Amino acid sequence: MAGCLSGGNVLAADPSVPAKPMREITLVSVDFEGTKVWVPGTLVAKKGDRVKLKLINRIMTGPNTHGFAIDDFGVKVVVARETPQSVVFTADKAGLFPFHCHLHPPHIGGQILILE
């Protein structure tokens, strides 16, 4: 085994460089008195955060699948009933960005606020 690493350098991660924070948020699609919505309707993260969204479709009527999209961050997911999906993206710009169901436009979407 001696010499297995000869000729190459092994570098450890620099502990002085903080890892980018991961912001984890769970959203659930529900039917509220006949209106389909993602809850919560407003999300907040900081610019530079990696954002992990866990999406759960709990709408028991109508189509088996519902969409979730944040166009400004290239997020587009189809979520089957009771089959959670996760999506990760980097919040690389600040501002207020809408999210929506790209499969059923009449459904109510929401917004994600990315702070500087």
Description:
The protein has a single domain, classed as Immunoglobulin-like (Sandwich). The chain is built from no helices and 9 strands. It has strands at residues 22-32, 35-39, 42-46, 50-57, 65-70, 75-80, 85-90, 95-99, 110-115. Strands 2-1-4-7 form a 4-stranded mixed sheet, with no helix packed on it. It has a 3-stranded mixed sheet with strand order 3-9-8, with no helix packed on it. A two-stranded antiparallel ribbon has the order 5-6. Residues 1-8 have low confidence and may be disordered.
Sequence-ordered SSE layout with sheet pairings:
Layout: E1 22-32, E2 35-39, E3 42-46, E4 50-57, E5 65-70, E6 75-80, E7 85-90, E8 95-99, E9 110-115
Parallel strand pairs: 1-4, 3-9
Antiparallel strand pairs: 1-2, 4-7, 5-6, 8-9
Number of domains: 1
Helix content: under 10%
* Average predicted local confidence, pLDDT: 88
The CATH homologous superfamily is called Cupredoxins -  blue copper proteins
CA-based shape: elongated
Q: Would you state the CATH class? A: Mainly Beta
Percentage of residues in DSSP E strands: over 45%
Corresponding CATH architecture: Sandwich
Low-confidence stretches: 1-8
Q: Give the topology string: H per helix, E per strand.
A: EEEEEEEEE
Which structural class is indicated by helix and strand composition? mainly beta
Distance between the amino and carboxyl termini:
50 Å
**Largest β sheet strand count, sense and barrel closure:** 4 strands, mixed
Labels describing this entry:
50% strand; mainly beta; single chain; disordered N terminus; 4-stranded mixed β-sheet; elongated; 3-stranded mixed β-sheet; 0% helix; Immunoglobulin-like; 116 residues
